[in-house]
Amino acid sequence: MSDITRDDVAHLARLARLAVSDEELDVFSSQIDAIVDTVSRVGEIPDDVPPTAQVVPQTNVLRRDVREPSLSNAAALSGAPAAEEGRFRVPRILGEGA
Predict the structure, then answer these.
(1) Strands (E), 1-94
(2) What is the pLDDT, as a whole number, of residue 47?
(3) Among 25, 68, 74, 88, which has the minimal tally of Cβ within 10 Å of its Cβ?
(4) Residue 15 has pLDDT above 90, yes or no
(5) Ranges 11-15, 18-22, 24-28, 58-62: which has the least confidence
(6) Following DSSP, what letter does each residue of 34-50 receive, concatenated?
(7) How far apart, in whole angstroms, are the C-alpha atoms of residue 37 and residue 33?
(8) What is the distance between the alpha carbons of residues 94 and 59, in angstroms, rounded to a whole number?
(9) Over the stretch 25-68, which tens digit does the pLDDT of each residue have?
């Protein structure tokens, strides 16, 4: 274990201008100690272990790209409150200069 003490955490809190209570000093010192120990374990990994992006092999899960029938333009516009020149008509939200 690394030796992160309450005094170390209090010093860091002062440098960061953080108000930390005595209870928080106890909690933070144990948490920071655990983090430092975990990070230091990275150095224990043997050099012959290849870099890994995924632990579990992944395969392409996309469906085949098959052309299927779709709505006609008229059917798509049939439920629209307003249509114009084969498109949905919506209220203008931008000014003339935009």
Answers:
(1) 83-84, 87-88
(2) 86
(3) 68
(4) yes
(5) 58-62
(6) HHHHHHHGGGGS-TTSP
(7) 6
(8) 45
(9) 999 999 998 999 999 888 888 888 888 888 888 787 788 889 99
* Cα(30)–Cα(1) distance, integer angstroms: 10
**Which tokens hold the place of 42?**
């990275």
Confidence of residue 97 (pLDDT cuts 50, 70, 90): low
Sign of CA dihedral 10, 14, 16, 22: positive
Q: What's the one-letter identity of residue 68?
A: E
Q: Can you list the domains of the chain with their CATH numbers?
A: 6-43 (1.10.20)
Burial 47-68 (b: 16+ CB within 10 A, else e): eeeeeeeeeeeeeeeeeeeeee
Q: How many residues does the chain have?
A: 98
Instruction: Say what the pTM is.
Output: 0.45
Site of tokens 């092999």: 57
Of 8, 48, 62, 51, the closest CA to residue 30 belongs to: 8
Residue 84 in 3-state DSSP? strand
